[in-house]
Every structure is written in C-alpha cells, then in structure tokens.
Amino acid sequence: MKPDFRKTMIWLHTYSGLVFGWVIFTIWVTGTLSYYNDEISQWMRPELGSQPPAQQVVNRSLQELSLRASDAKQWRISLPSDRSNRLRITWSDSLERRAKRHSVTLNSQTLAPIEPRETQGGNFFRAFHYTLELRNYGGRYFAGAAAMFMLVAIFSGIFTHRRFFRDFFTLRFKKTLKAVTDLHAIAGVITIPFCFILSFSALLIYISSYMPWSMEYHFDNGRRDIDKHISTRLSPVKPANELAIPITNFDHIEKTIQTVWPEKGAISRISYQYPYDANGRIVVTRQPLLSLSNKSEQLAINPHTGQIIEEIKPERVARMVRRVFYGLHEARFASPILRSLLFFMGLASTFLIASGLIIWLNKRLEKVKKRHLGHTIVERLNISTIMGLIIAIAGYFYANRLIPITTTDRSELEINVFLITWLCVAIYTLVRSVKRAWQELLLIAGAGYLLLPVLDFIINKQWLLQAWSNRNLIYISVESAMLITGMICLVFYGWLKRRNNHVK
Amino acid sequence: MQSVIIRVSVGVCFSSANSGSHTQTSWVYKEFYIFMNLHNHYIFSMTSRVIAAVIGGYGCAVASSFALVPWLNIAFDMQKPDAVYLATMLSYLFYLGAIIWCFCQKTALLAWRDIIMSSLFFSLFYLLATPTKELVA
C-alpha cells in the first residue's frame, strides 16, 4: 500500500465509518431524541396534565409526607421544572442507595395523588442510546467501540479533502449522488466540534469500564471505590436517636436559600434525611442550569433552625474534567434556544452518518458491473436501519397510546413493541425490491407520524385542549414535531416516486 | 474455516514482516507466495495494520494510563487518585493517536514497531519513575 497520507485517511474514513455505521446511526438518532427527554416523557404521560404548579407546592407536599410516612428515614420531593411537569414525593426506610423506595406522583395543582401510565417515557431513548437494550450483554462496550470508531471517522474525514474550503462551498445539484456527497461534506464540517465532543465525552463517561486497568492496579477495591477517592460529597449524617420536630413550613428556609442561589426556581429536589431526629438535616439540590458540570450543587440545612450547615465542595481537577464533559454530553444546562440548536446539530450528524452509508453503497454500485454479496448486505442494512429505526420510534409512541393502562409490565411491553416493529421492517426489506422498500417504508413512516396526533386527539381530546388553554408549549411542540417528521417522510416519498418513474 | 484462520494468521505475520521489502523479495517469500496464494498482499497488510491499531493501540493506551500517573503526580503535585483518574482519561488521546499512526506508517511492520516501542517506553517510564517519589495517597 502506498504511504500516501490522504489516501490512507480516505480508506480509514470509509471503513471505520462503514463497520459501525449502523450502530452509530442508531445511537445518534436516539441520543438526539434524548435532548428532549423530559418533553417526550411529558407527552407520554398525558395524565399529569398541563396545569401550572400551585404556590404552596413544597409545604403541601411536606404535609403529605408527614401524613404518609412519619417513620421513614428519608423524604424526598422532586419538584416540577420548566421542562418536566412531574411532582413526585418519595420516602424510604434507609439512606442506602439501593433501599426500597415508595413513590407517589401528585397533581401539581391540587396535590391529589395520580397514577400516570407505566412507561419509561423519553428516558427509554436515553437508556437505549448507550446500552442498546443489551444491558447485561456488553451493550455499553459496544456503544463505546462505536464512539471510538466515530472519533477515528471524524479525524480521518477531515483529511479526505484536498481543498477544504473549496469543497465546503461546492454544491452540485445536477447529479443526486454528487449532491449527497457535497451535503455530506458540509454537514461534516459543520458538526466536527459537536461530533468530537459528543463521542469523546461518551468515552469519558464510562471511563472506569473502558479503561479500568490503572484504577484496578492502584486502588484496593479497584474501580468500584473510585468515586470515594476522587469525588467531593457532603459529610455523612449520624442519627442521634432523639426525637425532634423539623420545620415543615419551607417559606423561611426558601428565603435563606435564595441568598445563596438567587435565580428563580432554583431548587430541583428537597430531601429530609432522618426527618424526626435531632441530628437530621435537609439537603437541597439546585437546578443544573448555571453550570457546565453535571455535578449537582447541594446545600445541607439544619431542619430545626433553618440555617445552612454545609455546602458541597467543588470537585478537584481530575473529576471536574469528566464532570464538565459529562455535562456537555447531557446538556442539562441548555436553555430552550441552545437546546434546539444542539438538537439540530444532532439531526445534522444523523444526516451525516446516514448519507455516508448511502454514498458508500451507491459509489460502488456505479462502478461495479457485477454485484458482490457485500453490496446487498449493506443495501438491506441501510434500509432496515434508517427506515426501521424511524418507524420503530413511531411504533413506540403508538404502543404508548394504545396498550391498555392496566396491563402488567406495561413499560416493558412498549419497548418490546419498539423492537418487534424494527424486526418486522427488517424482514420487510428482505422481501421487497430496494426501490419499493424505500418508497413504501417512507409512506408508512409518513402516515404513521401524521396520524399520531390524530390518534392522541381521538383517544382523549382533553389532553390537547388542556395543553392549548394552559399554553403548554411542550405538549404542542412534541405533536407538531411528529407532524413535521411525517411531512418530511412524505416529501421524500414523493421525490423518490417521481425519480423512479422518471428513470423508467 | 480452520484453514481460513490459519491463512489469515500466517498471512498477517508474513505480510508485516515482508511488506517493507518489495524490491528484494527472498525465495522464502516467493515460495510462500505461491504456496499460500497470497496474490492479495494488500488485504493482509491492512489486516495487520487494523490489528496493530485496535489491539496494539489499546495496549499502548493502557501503558500510557500507567506512565502518566507518576508524571502527573510529580510534575503537577497531584494526589494519587486524581493522577490515576486523569491519566486514564488522557490515555484515550494516545489510543486515537496510535490508531491514526498505524495507518500513516509506510508499512505494517513499522506500525507494529512503533506501537511496541511506545508501549515499552511507557512501561519503562512507569517502572523507573514510581519509586523515586512515594505516591501521595
């Protein structure tokens, strides 16, 4: 092989992109969706309603907790935020991480308990994008390998251009394949920093699984205890076994907190540890809106005097590096506009990956007279991954609305519907010819997404009407995003149909 | 199936050893070439590089995640747990670099040489640097 740097990089770009291309595509689509994790969850739990939270929500939740769980060791209130409309009170009999928890969701206006449908919501996409639903079968390692391949593909992709700037401003619309190639280059250049940060931070998040050797060697208990050595935390509580009544009127404490965290709606979670003990304390967690790091800022407060006892110390450099990359990956800090920008960057990257896979195939089919088995495999995998995933996501949403609420293991059933839909599409692509498969699947996807809001309206029109009257933009935006996806699928369907008729 | 595995594995060693010397091919190479039907020398060279990049590169990264510990510990006065953690994070960059390097070298043999040399360098550095200063726990 010739020692030509550019040619080597082209080879590397081609094959590092191809080998894991379909896995990378799946990860990036579901990962992009999980930027709107809470918003999708809100659509998938319509029982929670769109009403604004009541004024005295903390005090009334504390009343509920003292009525329901006076002997619990920990109370916790998860407050609704701008993105999530879920108010939840939780209590447990121990402070251990694995202790059994009792959890009740409350209506944020009336504080009456409600039972939202059992679903993973948008969190399914988040979990799927790094475990691939293979949690006990090395799914995370698979995702990690995909991230590494993505890094190599990004790096080598930069060097495939002989004239970087001229290529960026080149667009040839006369031939479809040329147009797709140029768009691939543009999307690539735009998303270089985005893709690099996302793939690199993905590797850093699971660092102790992917690179455990040095940690295993240097510490007694290996990577399991690494957090204890490098992370900062609040000092542990020791119960005094003396009865003491805590303050359950939170107004005064809230004013104290405001002196430290001045922004509005700063609190995301309140927990009372050992609520009826003389040594108990209140731990308040801040909304993660003002910091890149994903470390939750916490305050410990004395529940009898209302004074701040302790503030969690900032992380040291090593842990901070991971925290900031983790924070950048999750983007919990992002304001609505920044979030939408990140979402569109995610969409551009998925276009980048999908177009790369399609270019690989069509470039070879143009040159080669006799088809190779590999070409057929790539062809079918392209259709069944790209269209299959899009349709499977729609299937997941349909399952959310159509499976009866009382079904046992409902959330698992939803996920199974997602997987089975995907499998059905994969089988379908094997049966049909390529042109027809693309066309028909685009039609199915388009119709599927367009009918989702209609189905929602038929099942219970109160959900949409209530969202409309309460100006709940989130619910409406999710529905309109579905409509837009459906339209885009139909536009592509029409374009493909005209093109195929033209060729004939 | 077995024969394929033998062919590939032998071919990998052979191509890495011989891919540098196109001009003066030895009789061993010619005999072997005919015997193994190695007309697609390119594939073996590439396979060898891929193995060097993926597995060798990972080994090199692991070695670097050890070697950087005493360096961070001494040069930046970092606590041991932090040094271990940061060194592990930095090792990914060495992995990425090693992968690219393997595909940039003229021959697969040179790629293997560099991977092994750098891994040895990192290991030696770790072994020599650690006892000079007790790691601050």
Give an overview of the whole structure.
Chain A has 504 residues and is α+β, with helices and mostly antiparallel strands. Helix content of chain A is 60%, strand content 8%. Chain A has an eight-stranded antiparallel beta sheet, covered by helices on one side. The radius of gyration of chain A is 26 Å and the shape is globular. The two termini of chain A are 42 Å apart. The mean pLDDT of chain A is 90. Chain B is mainly alpha-helical and 137 residues long. Chain B is built from five helices and no strands. The chains are: A alpha+beta (504), B mainly alpha (137). The A-B interface holds A 1, 3, 5, 8-9, 11-12, 148, 151-152, 155-156, 200, 203-204, 207-208, 211, 213-215, 217-219, 226, 229-230, 316-319, 321-322 and B 19, 42, 45-46, 61-62, 65-66, 69, 78-89, 91-92, 95-96, 99-100, 103-106.
Explain the layout of strands and helices:
The complex is a heterodimer of chains A (504) and B (137).
Chain A: H1 5-19, H2 21-33, H3 37-44, H4 57-68, E1 74-78, E2 87-92, E3 101-106, E4 113-114, H5 123-131, H6 139-158, H7 164-168, H8 176-205, H9 207-210, H10 213-218, H11 226-230, H12 251-260, E5 267-273, E6 281-286, E7 298-301, E8 308-311, H13 317-330, H14 336-367, H15 373-402, H16 410-431, H17 434-459, H18 461-469, H19 473-503
Antiparallel strand pairs in A: 1-2, 1-5, 2-3, 3-4, 5-6, 6-7, 7-8
Helix pairs in contact in A: 1-6, 2-5, 2-6, 2-14, 2-15, 3-19, 6-8, 8-13, 8-14, 14-15, 15-16, 15-17, 17-18, 17-19
Chain B: H1 2-18, H2 27-36, H3 41-75, H4 80-104, H5 108-129
